[in-house]
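request received
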Amino acid sequence: MRAHIPSYEMVAPKTLEEALTRLAEGRGEWRIFAGGTDLMVLLEAGKLTHRRFLSVWRVQELRGITFAPQFVTLGSLTTYTDVLRHEMLRREFPLLAAAAAETGGVATQNRGTLGGNIVNASPAADSPPALLVYDAEVELTSARGSRWLPLREFHTGYKTTQLRADELLARIRLPRETAGFKPYYRKVGTRKAQAISKVCFAGLRNRATGEARIALGSVAPVPLRCLKTEAVVRQGGDAAAALAREIAPIDDMRSTAAYRLRVAQNLLKEFLDA
Amino acid sequence: MAESLIGVGVPRKEGRNKVTGKAQYIDDLHFEGMLYGVTVRSPAPRGRIKAIRFGKEIPWDEFTVVTAADIPGKNCIALIVDDQPCLAQSVVNHAEEPVLLLAHADKYLLEEARRAVEIEIEPLPAIFNIEDSLRGDLIIWGENNVFKQFRVSKGNVDAAWSEAALIVEGEYSTGAQEQLYIENNGMIAIAGPEQGVTVWGSMQCPYYIHKALKTVFGLPEEKIRVIQAETGGGFGGKEEYPSMIAAHAALLAWKAGKPVKLIYDRAEDMAATTKRHPSRTRHRTAVSRDGKLLAMEVDFVVDGGAYATLSSVVLSRGTIHAAGPYACPNVRILSRAVATNAPPHGAFRGFGAPQSIFALERHMDRAAAAVGLAPEEFRRRNFLRKGDTTATGQVIHEDVDMPGMLDQALRESDYHAKKERFARDNRGNAIKRGIGFASFFHGAGFTGSGERYLASIAGVEATSEGIVRVLASSTEIGQGTNTILTQIAAGTLGVPYESVEIVQPDTGNVPNSGPTVASRTCMVVGQLVESAALGLKETLAGAGLLKPSYTPEEFTRACAAYIAQHGPLRSYSQYQAPPGIFWDDEKYQGDAYGAFAWAVYVAEVNVDTLTCEARVTNFVAVQEVGRVVNPVLAAGQIEGGVAQGIGLALYENVVWQNGRMVNGQMTNYIIPTAVDIPPIKVVFEERPYAYGPMGAKGIGELPMDGPAPAIASAVENATGIRLNSVPATPETLMAALDNAYA
Amino acid sequence: MPKAAINITVNGAARSVSVWPMARLLDVIREELGLTGTKEGCGEGECGACAILLDGRLTNSCLVPALQADGAAITTIEGIARGEKLAPIQQAFLECGGAQCGICTPGMIMAAVSLLAENAKPSEAEIRNALAGNLCRCTGYMRIFEAVSRASRPEGPQR
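response:
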């Protein structure tokens, strides 16, 4: 444990209103803390630079999975375990279930949240590629009100987002338009469990309409919905070349740019051939 | 009765404490008034220390600060060559080298202080790989960067080349590997000029630490006491480095006048402590038309890191295993351990042998292909048999049957049918399946004259209640020392398992039974315990208190009577080499080991050509380790070793940058999880060894040797690519596949 | 920053402790509550040695800030046996050789307890998945699978 723990502050509001009031008054002093599976790792390494945290773990308004005719809405504190245990969600959004099942082990799945996974803004996050192909929208809420934003616009660059200092991510909404789509999900991370992805591929294909939706993780500064590649697929062009232009993989301690590009293209081919 | 406990899977002696959470590891211990310690380390791989600056806003007067100037004795970690400083004084030779120590009661404040110390280094050029070290353009150690060199010579290699039908050459390499015991290193020390130095900690070798502390403090041996706490895995990683940590904790305690606890976190343990030596091996082999080995020339080099530490002995074992379990009339081996500016590489299960055996087994596959034989048939024609001589000229007196074990392993794994089926099914399939094997041996106990020099002692004592206590410095680190020594003592004395206790290894209380390394605990120390127990029995019989045949109750009465009449009832035994063992240190010839364990391992793999991820899908391990003392523990040793071997082969990749491990977290240094390990079938062929306790030989390191070459062979079978180095990460496999298809 | 008083039910007993809000629950368990059976292996949620049940759910205690445990019930390895009598899963670990060095064992047993509470008869694949977040370096896992499987069978452990 490399952090100076006494200099960190945490408060735990019980209601959303209380949390939003704190955020509004704090002018950027407070950061939201959910299941802690990312932030506590930084704390351990002595690399958690922010010092004041609002724990929303007990805020019930941020939990729950509700089905309406057009949308399914997920509280941002929905854990991977919540996803895996929800029969209807698993059936209708199998990519999300696949992502949840491949995130960490059981203990991580019990604590990690979809909202945290999105806001933490890691390009290697496991759930965003799945959420992106489902055209997820996120609700950003503050004391001033709420706004909905397509998830694909939420991440603006490496570890940067549209979230304002007084906002928190309250809910995630998925349009229930998955009928007719065939799902494809592959997380590539060397070992089978407890891995950080080198490439993560989520795809939906509708043979009847020719529509393909494609999103990847770990190949760009942000989890990337590949709209240009999708267009090329629709037009019957060279999808692999389009993907190569659209993604921007790098070399790091986990893998190489060349490997990531090749695997992304191989998975694209498998997805399209399936 | 005597042997009723041998060959039985009795539950682990300390198992109950482990499954209830009661076992006390070093971080679980707390001493009144204890301070916490940390180590401040070199940020650079090589250079001169220009300045050490202490940042503002830290109440430094509250801290205990130790530098090299505070060392009362000699500033070195005594081991073989005393070149490694306890704390760097003017120069640093590797990143993460310890420079300064801090202690404080508040461990959070201590972290602030660690961050506030700045060590300014004037950089010097550094070496980061074997080839640069051998080239010698830059000399960083001694006269030529070579810590140690061995030459082994048998027959006349030069005369053989011209007779050969074929000459096969190859180069092979293996990477660094982190031991990754799940319990990080740690020590607690109490020290002062009056009471001397006492340390408790996680360790394999209490007497190594004892020797190091004597040197650092310049104290007589009775002023030093080393006590092992429950130890959460070692695998060699707690063989030599704990001496450093013990010295650091003791220096802080000495200066502070208070107990000091020094526990590494995972990041520090990964970055600073030892790893398996990276290696590079070149083979040149002469083969006859009918597939007989005529000559082998081997050039084996290991990267020792910045200081000599154990590299010479790691090299020695790697050298002796470099020609493997094959009969070859002419052998020449040149081996070298060279210096680089990496943290010193050290002991890791197998100790050089996994490296040289990987190269050899890959090369044997290559030679088989060159001469047009199946790899199993090529092995069969060349295996060592009883009466043959090894590379060092050791005559094999054991009833070894490698061809029989090979047949059994191939049968158990359904090798031939699968090989055929995979070849058929792989066509047009993105997932390629393959099967491969490795055949190998592993010498038990210290190499050459090592055991004679060690002259280990173990003892047993009995109480008047009939409780037998085993006295040895051999440590339980998960491998089963407590259990097998209990089985051997109880079995020899004919008393119940529950009547035997293992005395906690404590240099103040137990004799030096040698380090807990080299697959020697069961075979060598077990034999000492057996013979000490026999001595105790003879003492009782000699005193007329015990008949040749007796019940446990009669044994208890005899102990009570003896103690009443004569006082303490103890018996010790000291190592004596089995008859006919001879070793020449100069020529590196003779009987390298008292006994070998023999094995054939078969691996099956899947390689997904889309991602180049390889997975082991099935594993068969057939071995002969003498008599199996505890089948549950023994199988656990094999399975655990195979899992580590799978890691070495496919997953475990230390990523270096300027001599520093940059993926030093469990998140980024990948070891196999519960879903990555295939079913492992373990088969023991039991051939009792005449000089082992109840016929047992060594077992611990053996399973580390075979998996990597077997898996590499299987990957090659699946994909057709030549796989000459491990780890075979997906990235390297993809590059190799590209080359193969290009 | 001030310390906070939190209330936790620990292995069935109510406890109140004063903690730094972001102290790791792991450290609170080991140092404040004195329950050292819960181990630290990596400090980053990767190895599972610190696993406990937090409100019945398997949780890596190194990743939980103490304040978030306020009002929660936790079960640690010390709460698994019934007095001197080992729980079936502990007995099975002992008999099958599921523990070697023992440092991963408490977390591994907690993961097994969590699995068996929800799935009394897990398949080997289910056992493997349930334990995938707990790293063991000694055993190669085979004997751990066997132990979990044995604990789930009606006849239970042999002794």
